[in-house]
Amino acid sequence: MNPHSKLDHEKLSTMVKSKRGKDGLRKTAKEIGDISASTLSRIEQGNLPDIETYLNLCDWLGVSTDYFILKKKDMETQNTSQKVVAHLRADKTLDPETADALVRMITLAYQQANPQTK
Amino acid sequence: MKRGFKAEAERKSIQLRKDMNLKYTDKLCGFELAQFLDVTIKTPSEIIGLEPYRLHNLLHNGKSEFSAVVLPSGKDSFWIIHNPTHTAERQQSNICHELAHIICGHEFSSEDIQDLPLPLRDFNKLHEDEAIYLGGCLQLPRKALSWAINKGMSKDDISSYYEASPEMVRYRINITGLNRIYARL
Q1: Closest CA to B83 of B46, B28, B131
Q2: C-beta of residue B138 within 8 angstroms of C-beta of residue B30
Q3: A100 in Cβ contact with B54 (< 8 Å)
Q4: pTM of the full predicted structure?
């Protein structure tokens, strides 16, 4: 791994919490697979997962494994998805969950609007 | 804003009405204008593959934060994804604002945008100001506003006739200087 990269554990925990919503930890842990409810809870508190757990989480969240990797450049400037949202017609202080939902929606919509570029 | 931009924006909004066989005093529906300009309007629930919890966020908890987004579609067209949970007046203003960016030809830039497969419009204050002004003109051209006021319409009447929010009506009356001419308002 690039020594200048880090995991954006805040983004990860926010997304996990958001997707879990009102479901219980045990139910969600079962859905994700190979993870205990207590580990899931620790991840939501911001603790780093081990590699296998990380891969299962990315799968469950529907994102690539790159998604939470912060390159040095990102760490120096604003978080990418927050910067993206600054370019949209929306309020400037954006909630990270909304930023995540917007980025995901835009990514999917772009594919839909430009099927020839897949 | 560039010199002459405001006058040009007013002219454009009248010309577009003419091109759409509308009178200058008619309401211009943002959705119809989009259709006229071959711009596709979508809502988040029409985006295939968007997870229900993310959709829920955009339409509920995040609803005040998401108004509209423009994406390129093919070489020379666009999609606008807008928030359908906003009021009708707000939706009109959201759509007209994004169409204003398209009409002005504001470029998309891909600088510094990672994680996304597409270029997005950079936050450019001048472009935002232009889109705000033209968007307002599209909804309420000065000529139409002047006609409405002369007819004796109140701000509320104007708001409902043109499907514009009271804030938009107030903003347009002030920015066009009509507030000075029509003191009763």
Answers
A1: B46
A2: yes
A3: yes
A4: 0.69
Chain A residue numbers touching B65 (CB-CB < 8 A): 85, 90-91, 94-95, 98
Q: Do B62 and A95 touch (CB under 8 A)?
A: yes
CA distance A61 to B51: 9
Q: Which of B44, B97, B122 sits opposite A87 (nearest CB)?
A: B122
Report residue A89: phi and psi, to 5°: -80, 85
Mean pLDDT by 10 residues, chain B (185 residues): 93 96 96 96 96 91 78 83 94 94 73 39 73 96 95 94 96 93 71
CA dihedral B156, B160, B163, B164 (to 10 degrees): 0
Inter-CA distances, A104 with A84, A97, B48, B59, B135, Å: 11, 11, 11, 14, 27
* Residue of chain A nearest B53, judged by CA positions: A19
* Residue A87 reports pLDDT greater than 70: no
- Per-residue pLDDT at A116 exceeds 90: no
User: Of B53, B113, B37, nearest to A87 (Cα)?
Assistant: B113
